[in-house]
Amino acid sequence: MNVLHFVGAFFGDSAHWHGYDGIPTRLLEHLRYSLIALGVAAAVGLPAGLLTGHTGRGGNVLAFIATAARALPSFGLLVLMFILFGFGLVPVMIPLVVLAVPPILVTTYEAMRSVDPSPVDAARGMGMSEARILFQVELPVALPVVLGGLRTAAVQIVSTATIAAYVSLGGLGRYIMDGLYQHDYEKVVGGATLVAALALVTLALFWAAGRLTVSPGVRRRG
Amino acid sequence: MIRIDGVTKRYPDGTVAVDRLSLDIPDGAITVFVGPSGCGKTTTLRMINRMVEPSEGRILIDGEDSRRQPVNTLRRSMGYVIQNAGLFQHRTIVDNIATVPRLLGWSKEKARSRARELMERVGLDGSLAKRYPYQLSGGQQQRVGVARALAADPPVLLMDEPFSAVDPVVRKGLQDELLRIQAELGKTIVFVTHDIDEAVKLGTMVAVMRTGGRLAQYAPPAELLSDPADAFVEDFLGADRGIRRLSFFPSAELELLTGPVAAAGTGRTAARDTGDAPYLLVTDADGRPLGWAEPGLPTDGPVDPGRLLPCGRPFVAGQDSLRAALDCAVLSPTGWAVAVDGSGRVAGVVSQQAIGEAIRAAHAGGRSDGADTGASAKVAG
């Protein structure tokens, strides 16, 4: 009776591969929650981080918001939102977004602030517009770190999205939650393994995105 | 022409960076702003392309107020070079140089072919085109910075301490290159430095500024060295301004003696007869200097190249300045300087004493014509 035995048994059981409680369904549900949460968090965090980083204003406010958001426990927030909004996707998305915004926001801000000021000065002196300076001078150099923030957020979302099962939604957390109730450890371990694997795949995807989008002139500096 | 008209820059905290500055920057020449840190020289430069907006006064470009046109249009019409080059590390060298043409809407192909043309002009090997900035040395990066500023062929070039972060040997190369480019292209260059030697070397006109953002003196470098306006300028020019000023006097007036010169292996009697130098300069068969023969040797028979004193670095007659000639004489073990022609053959020898007389003569004449010929009389070396 070891963990590997549980893993083998879980994935070897053909009943786990189809139906509304099958692995493909749960995986797609989990991906859906994660992508929506990451999308919303990026839509909030990236523009705010890029703008404050570019102008250099609002850094203190930003640090305060990020610290406050980090102090909120995801699980407590989930329960609170469930009480407020009832059953549905919204109470799950709010804690996930609150969890993911700080790493995106703070890292993007820091990445933009750490860009060497002299190319920016040169660009401005050559008559580049502020938008061009942001997107064509600062962002390409800040990109590896910005991607790092998104990656951290994505991995946290993927692992934390399991809490959706607590409020009767699907996702990979279903296996863990149900397994715990039913004392079915095979299910618990199987679900946890899937979550871990998905987190690793997420890391790999971000690594590939970095290789594709970061200029070799920047990448060397790591 | 760029006219700075009563310009003051005052910051909200009350600091005055530039104080009622007025001067005209001539077209097609290098105007250098020089002074200690905090004298407002960089602020002045940055007000020309409106990176800093003046609090009072105005800047006229060819008679038109610089605020009349959109700020980015103004900036695109002026090349901008800064310390450490400020290259875009995510772009290749060729794309860095092509930046402003691309901003002006040129096609990628046209902008890149222009960029390659400029790489050649600033002395960069074409094989570097596809490299990234981190793969280049500091001096090469600065050349890219100059090429990038020249890419859209702007009439004006603003250069903010562009060479101060590279080592002295590389800096000298970059300065010579800038003078060459300026001679070829005739740009209006505004150059900021804290190095008075750089200012004297590069400037057609030099504006010396003092702390508090006030203009101390605005003059061609030769005039600056001969007639510093006050104790501040004199002090800033340093202790050896008399020697440095000799750079502006040509060596063409020096009377060269050819008597005490003889080729190795030839008879020495004739040379001895005409020369009044205690030493004899021995040359090879092509007339290039080998060294000085010591006195007290037999007065006849062939010249023996065996025991010679080194003759040091010669100066090029007519082309080098009196400063170079004096330097040769000072370094020569015999106290005599060796003059060569453009191809390195001996043109004659001249004593320290004769150079001293030429310096006195030049000083006597230089003061009167220094004012009108100005820095155009600057001599190489």
From TrEMBL, chain A:
<dbReference type="InterPro" id="IPR000515">
    <property type="entry name" value="MetI-like"/>
</dbReference>
<dbReference type="Pfam" id="PF00528">
    <property type="entry name" value="BPD_transp_1"/>
</dbReference>
<comment type="similarity">
    <text>Belongs to the binding-protein-dependent transport system permease family.</text>
</comment>
<keyword id="KW-1133">Transmembrane helix</keyword>
<feature type="transmembrane region" description="Helical">
    <location>
        <begin position="31"/>
        <end position="50"/>
    </location>
</feature>
<feature type="domain" description="ABC transmembrane type-1">
    <location>
        <begin position="27"/>
        <end position="206"/>
    </location>
</feature>
<feature type="transmembrane region" description="Helical">
    <location>
        <begin position="62"/>
        <end position="87"/>
    </location>
</feature>
<dbReference type="InterPro" id="IPR035906">
    <property type="entry name" value="MetI-like_sf"/>
</dbReference>
<feature type="transmembrane region" description="Helical">
    <location>
        <begin position="156"/>
        <end position="176"/>
    </location>
</feature>
<protein>
    <submittedName>
        <fullName>ABC transporter permease</fullName>
    </submittedName>
</protein>
<feature type="transmembrane region" description="Helical">
    <location>
        <begin position="188"/>
        <end position="209"/>
    </location>
</feature>
<keyword id="KW-0812">Transmembrane</keyword>
<keyword id="KW-0472">Membrane</keyword>
<dbReference type="InterPro" id="IPR051204">
    <property type="entry name" value="ABC_transp_perm/SBD"/>
</dbReference>
<keyword id="KW-0813">Transport</keyword>
TrEMBL record, chain B:
<feature type="domain" description="ABC transporter">
    <location>
        <begin position="2"/>
        <end position="237"/>
    </location>
</feature>
<dbReference type="InterPro" id="IPR027417">
    <property type="entry name" value="P-loop_NTPase"/>
</dbReference>
<dbReference type="GO" id="GO:0005524">
    <property type="term" value="F:ATP binding"/>
</dbReference>
<dbReference type="Pfam" id="PF00005">
    <property type="entry name" value="ABC_tran"/>
</dbReference>
<keyword id="KW-0067">ATP-binding</keyword>
<dbReference type="InterPro" id="IPR017871">
    <property type="entry name" value="ABC_transporter-like_CS"/>
</dbReference>
<dbReference type="InterPro" id="IPR003439">
    <property type="entry name" value="ABC_transporter-like_ATP-bd"/>
</dbReference>
<protein>
    <submittedName>
        <fullName>ABC transporter ATP-binding protein</fullName>
    </submittedName>
</protein>
<dbReference type="InterPro" id="IPR003593">
    <property type="entry name" value="AAA+_ATPase"/>
</dbReference>
<keyword id="KW-0547">Nucleotide-binding</keyword>
<comment type="similarity">
    <text>Belongs to the ABC transporter superfamily.</text>
</comment>
<keyword id="KW-0813">Transport</keyword>
